[in-house]
Write a structure and sequence with these properties.
Pfam families: YdjM. This is Metal-dependent hydrolase. One of its GO terms (molecular function) is hydrolase activity. InterPro entries: YdjM-like (IPR007404). This protein is mostly helical and 183 residues long. It has eight helices and no strands. The chain has one domain. The longest helix is centred in the last third of the chain and has 25 residues. The model has no long low-confidence stretch (mean pLDDT 92).
Length: 183
């Protein structure tokens, strides 16, 4: 799924939870950041190559929007780091380990981690074998589930229509929760 949709779905989730349990603005922002982070973090080696070596912004942009087989050429080390950061950030075992570590320190679930988890779960089903299947069991395997490619036009339309519908429902139900039925 695209990064905007990931962030919007995390915002929807936070809004729904906020109705039952108050979430601080910091918690919501951290949740949204963690929902977007898996698609941003793996770009850092490419950005570093651009900023500190002989890379280019065109290569960074090209990599960010590439379709399989049409990624720009990258130095081997940059490609390696980028690939493994992508795998790490889309890995359920690694997210589980991070969740357990944070749980051990806090003695409770840190809500923003659900942003990261939502990203992983959504991507498992919205990436296909032909369009960057998500290595959800990395480092044990780099294989991914063959879902629907989020770039499929009908799916993108359906996804954003669903987001719009849920957003309208949230706004409408918020008004009725507060007794504001409008003019």
């Amino acid at each position: 799924m695209d990064i905007i949709a990931h962030t919007l779905w995390a915002a929807v989730g936070a809004a729904v939870v906020h109705r039952r349990r108050r979430l601080s603005q910091t918690t919501v922002v951290a949740t949204l950041i963690l929902a977007a982070l898996p698609d941003v973090l793996h770009l850092l080696p490419i950005a570093g190559w651009w900023l500190f070596s002989d890379g280019s912004f065109a290569a960074l942009r090209g990599y960010a929007v590439a379709i399989p087989g049409q990624e720009p050429g990258l130095p081997q080390l940059v490609q390696l780091w980028s690939h493994h950061l992508h795998c790490v950030m889309h890995s359920a075992p690694i997210a589980a380990l991070a969740t357990l570590l944070v749980w051990g320190l806090r003695r409770s679930l840190w809500f923003p981690l659900l942003g990261w988890w939502s990203h992983i779960v959504i991507d498992v089903f919205t990436h296909s074998a032909d369009y960057y299947a998500v290595p959800v069991l990395y480092p044990f395997t780099e294989r991914g589930f063959d879902g629907i490619a989020w770039t499929t036009p009908w799916f993108m339309v359906a996804n954003y229509l669903a987001l719009a519908a849920v957003g309208i429902w949230l706004l409408a139900s918020r008004r009725s929760l507060h007794g504001c039925n409008g003019p």
